[in-house]
Each structure stands twice: as structure tokens, then as C-alpha cells.
From TrEMBL:
<dbReference type="GO" id="GO:0003700">
    <property type="term" value="F:DNA-binding transcription factor activity"/>
</dbReference>
<feature type="domain" description="HTH araC/xylS-type">
    <location>
        <begin position="214"/>
        <end position="315"/>
    </location>
</feature>
<dbReference type="Pfam" id="PF14525">
    <property type="entry name" value="AraC_binding_2"/>
</dbReference>
<dbReference type="InterPro" id="IPR018060">
    <property type="entry name" value="HTH_AraC"/>
</dbReference>
<dbReference type="InterPro" id="IPR009057">
    <property type="entry name" value="Homeodomain-like_sf"/>
</dbReference>
<dbReference type="Pfam" id="PF12833">
    <property type="entry name" value="HTH_18"/>
</dbReference>
<dbReference type="GO" id="GO:0043565">
    <property type="term" value="F:sequence-specific DNA binding"/>
</dbReference>
<dbReference type="InterPro" id="IPR020449">
    <property type="entry name" value="Tscrpt_reg_AraC-type_HTH"/>
</dbReference>
<protein>
    <submittedName>
        <fullName>Helix-turn-helix domain-containing protein</fullName>
    </submittedName>
</protein>
<keyword id="KW-0805">Transcription regulation</keyword>
<keyword id="KW-0804">Transcription</keyword>
<keyword id="KW-0238">DNA-binding</keyword>
<dbReference type="InterPro" id="IPR037923">
    <property type="entry name" value="HTH-like"/>
</dbReference>
<dbReference type="InterPro" id="IPR050204">
    <property type="entry name" value="AraC_XylS_family_regulators"/>
</dbReference>
<dbReference type="InterPro" id="IPR035418">
    <property type="entry name" value="AraC-bd_2"/>
</dbReference>
Length: 334
């Protein structure tokens, strides 16, 4: 039996606050920020398959943050599989980012902070289960968070994506024995997808390719303010060729230059939405993040986030103020 929660009967001005509370209670606690001034609409349908909770979401754009505060307060020892079924989604965890297209899926570890951003109306399937169930099958799973599993470009992950969608559409019709078998098969296939898509053997250490990739990400993160940061500089810092660096990131569906640009844009977005940095100008923030052309920055920021930097700052700070007032009136209950 599914539990269905929807914003439809809620007053328009109260819908996003309702969504904030009901999604946190239904899946995992997180802070949410609306990315549009338009009336928000969302629906979530949740059921269970043995130890796996399955949720189907339909929602307008918003930004979600699962923070250290939520982890220390609620302490869920669970994994999430996010499978994009419509629209686009952007994920971030452990300094790894992924852009999800329909059919793609990623792994979130709820014992560590993560970010999700849906910048257009989207639909997702969310599978939630105890971490131990997947770690027993793939010990390196906790090191594979926010890594894009392509739903169309890789034979194994494509098969798993289709399987997950079929499970979500039919699990309520299974008898108890079939539920057990399908739940076990689901976890087995997820472990297989994680191990094969990223060339990591079950319960073994990461390959050198993963090591170089993570070091490159770390170097990019610590040098965003350097306007001279380029793929060539990143490759040189790791002692590898530019060609090999590009090959390392091919499987994730984005170039190194795109990764650098998106990291800078995401840092600017965070700073613009931070009330502690409200005294800084938009371009001061942009230059501090490595941009050196005001017109170019404004253009690509609007292309990525669907509004200008100034519009985003106003919207984010207004939403934060509204959410703070809501939290004072309606504090979370354990």
C-alpha cells in the first residue's frame, strides 16, 4: 500500500513549507529552498519492498541540503538511490557532482552531507535502504556517492535502471516470497552496477584511475579562485597527461573544463545565498571564485540557474528568511 502526499489541497502560499516538512518526514531530513517565485507543486508516493522504501516524486524546482545538523540530530544509517525519470537533476556529495538525465541514477550516503538541485519540474524514483545491505555486497559503495550511473550509455547500468523502474511500477502486486526475492535481486544488481560501471572490484580498493580522479577534483576545489585554473594545470598538478585526465572524466558525462566552470558557479550560488556574505557585491563573489569577465559570468550563471545572479540572491535570501520564520513557528519533531 502506498502513502500519497500532495500539495494540491494546500493553500498556494503554504505549499512549499508543507513540501519541506512532508518530504523530510517521508524520505530523509533536509533543508529545502524554492528556486522560483511561482506557486509550488509536488507529490510523493511511498511504499516498501521488504527493507527497501520506494518513493516516487513529482516536483517543481527546488534546492535541497542534507547537512551535518540533520545527520547529528537524526542519524540515519541509510543509502539512497536517486533515479531520474523526467527533467534534470544535479547532485553533489563528497566533492563529487553529477548531472542526471532521465534514466540516470546515483547513490547518496545519508551519513554524510549532500546536495540536490532540481532546476526544472522533474520526476524521480528514490530507493532507501540500510547501508549494511549494500556494503555487504560492495564494500566500496560508500566511496561511490554522487557518481552518475548512465541510464542509456552503459549496458549494465542501463539494465539496472530499467529493472528499478519496473520494480517501482509493480512491487505492490508481488506476494511475500516474490518481494523477498526481488528485494535481494535489487541489491545484487545495484552492487553489480557500482562495481562494473566504475571498474571497481567487489570489496577491493579503488583503482589508480579513481585515485587520480579524486585528486584532480580536490585540486580543482582548492584552486577555484585561480582564474588561470585550466585542465592543463590540473593534469600537470597530478603528473599525468591532459589526454589521460580527459579520459578519467569521460565516464561521468562532463569535461574537466565543464567541471571547473560548474564548481565555480556552484560556489558563487552558495555565496550569493549566504546571508553572512550579503555585504559583498555580486562581482566580488564572482571574481573570488575565479571568474574575470562580468558579462560572461552573468550569462553562464543565468543559463545554469535560470535567473541572473542578482535575482538568485534576492530569491534565495527571501526564501531563507521565510524558512527561518516557518521553522520558528513549526519546529521539527523527532
Amino acid at each position: 500500500m502506498k502513502r500519497i502526499l500532495t500539495t494540491k489541497p494546500i493553500k498556494e502560499q503554504e505549499r512549499f513549507a508543507y513540501w519541506h516538512d512532508m518530504v523530510g518526514g517521508a524520505i530523509v531530513q533536509q533543508d529545502m529552498f524554492q528556486l522560483s517565485s511561482q506557486t509550488f507543486s509536488g507529490q510523493i508516493e511511498t511504499g516498501s519492498l521488504e527493507n527497501i522504501q520506494i518513493s516516487e516524486l513529482f516536483a517543481d524546482p527546488y534546492h535541497a541540503v542534507h547537512s551535518k545538523r540533520h545527520i547529528s540530530k537524526f542519524g540515519e544509517d541509510t543509502f539512497l538511490i536517486i533515479l531520474q525519470t523526467a527533467g534534470q537533476g544535479y547532485t553533489e556529495q563528497d566533492q563529487r557532482e553529477a548531472q542526471l538525465q532521465p534514466g540516470d541514477f546515483i547513490l547518496y550516503d545519508c551519513t554524510r552531507p549532500y546536495i540536490f538541485r532540481g532546476e526544472q519540474p522533474y520526476e524521480q524514483l528514490v530507493f532507501k535502504f540500510p547501508r549494511s545491505l549494500l556494503l555487504a555486497r560492495c564494500g566500496q559503495a560508500k566511496q561511490m556517492t554522487s557518481l552518475r550511473m548512465p541510464g542509456t550509455q552503459h549496458p549494465v547500468s542501463s539494465m539496472v535502471s530499467t529493472f528499478l523502474r519496473n520494480v517501482a511500477s509493480s512491487y505492490l502486486d508481488f506476494d511475500s516470497v516474490t518481494q523477498v526475492r526481488v528485494a535481494e535481486s535489487t541489491l545484487d544488481l545495484l552492487a553489480t552496477a557500482l562495481s562494473t560501471a566504475f571498474s571497481v572490484k567487489l570489496n577491493e580498493v579503488n583503482s589508480m584511475a579513481n585515485v587520480y580522479r579524486e585528486r584532480a577534483r580536490a585540486f580543482i576545489s582548492t584552486h577555484l579562485a585561480d582564474s588561470e585554473l585550466t585542465p592543463s594545470l590540473v593534469a600537470a598538478s597530478q603528473g599525468i597527461s591532459l589526454r589521460y585526465l580527459h579520459k578519467l572524466f569521460e565516464a561521468e558525462g562532463q569535461s574537466v573544463a565543464t567541471l571547473i566552470r560548474n564548481r565555480r558557479l556552484d560556489q558563487c550560488r552558495r555565496d550569493l545565498g549566504d546571508p553572512k556574505q550579503n555585504h559583498r557585491t555580486v562581482m566580488d563573489i564572482a571574481f573570488q571564485c575565479g571568474f574575470n569577465d562580468a558579462a560572461h559570468f552573468s550569462r553562464i550563471f543565468k543559463r545554469r540557474f535560470k535567473m541572473s545572479p542578482t535575482e538568485y540572491r534576492i530569491s534565495a535570501l527571501n526564501t531563507l528568511n521565510e524558512q527561518t520564520n516557518h521553522d520558528l513557528l513549526f519546529p521539527y519533531k523527532q
